[in-house]
Amino acid sequence: MNDSERIDRILKLISTIWHKHPDLRLGQLLFIFADFIDDIFYYKDDKTEKLLEENLKEASKRKGYKNNGDL
User: Fold this and answer.
1) Which of 32, 42, 55, 69 is deepest in the core (most CB within 10 A)?
2) How many domains would you assign to the chain?
3) Residue 18's domain spans which residues?
4) For each of the chain's 71 residues, which pLDDT tens digit applies?
């Protein structure tokens, strides 16, 4: 059985990313993210969570990126 706590962790990551890009619609945000994954249908949640975390860490290193200290 999957760890149900993963849902809140992943949604928090998505929320953090979305708040940093509030002009994007949810569909746009998910489409952009899905483009990084070869076959999102079979992608495991732990890998998705790790990819989201890496995205936030990388983005926070870029100049001018709004970092509110979430990660």
Assistant:
1) 55
2) 1
3) 5-61
4) 678 999 999 999 999 999 988 999 999 998 988 887 888 888 899 998 998 998 888 877 775 555 554 43
